Amino acid sequence: MPKTMLNLRLEQTADLDIETIFEQGLRQFGLSQAELYHDELYRQFELLGEYPGLGRPIHSVKYPGAQKFGFGSHIIVFSHGDTTLTVHRIFHARSNYTRYL
Description:
Helix content: 25-40%
Strand content: 25-35%
CATH architecture: 2-Layer Sandwich
Largest sheet: 5 strands, mixed
Mean pLDDT: 91
Number of domains: 1
Shape: globular
CATH superfamily: RelE-like
Strand order of the largest sheet: 1-5-4-3-2
Order of helices and strands: EHHEEEE
Structural class: alpha+beta
Number of helices: 2
């Protein structure tokens, strides 16, 4: 029996993070690589929508019940309910992202 996928919801902050990641990738690695990374990032959202348990719990005052999931050079911060996966932020793994939680 196929697993039910959660509906994806990107918070505005996550949308801005995705835009920034694409622009940085474009400058550093070129259009082709930036597009590949962008597409793969969305595949990670789909994966988390199908298997939200892949995330690891994190302590967050701003996003109670949030989890994190590593992808490439980034950390996806998300939470989920019965029907929706909400992506809150996407941080560079080397950043001090915990200060934003």
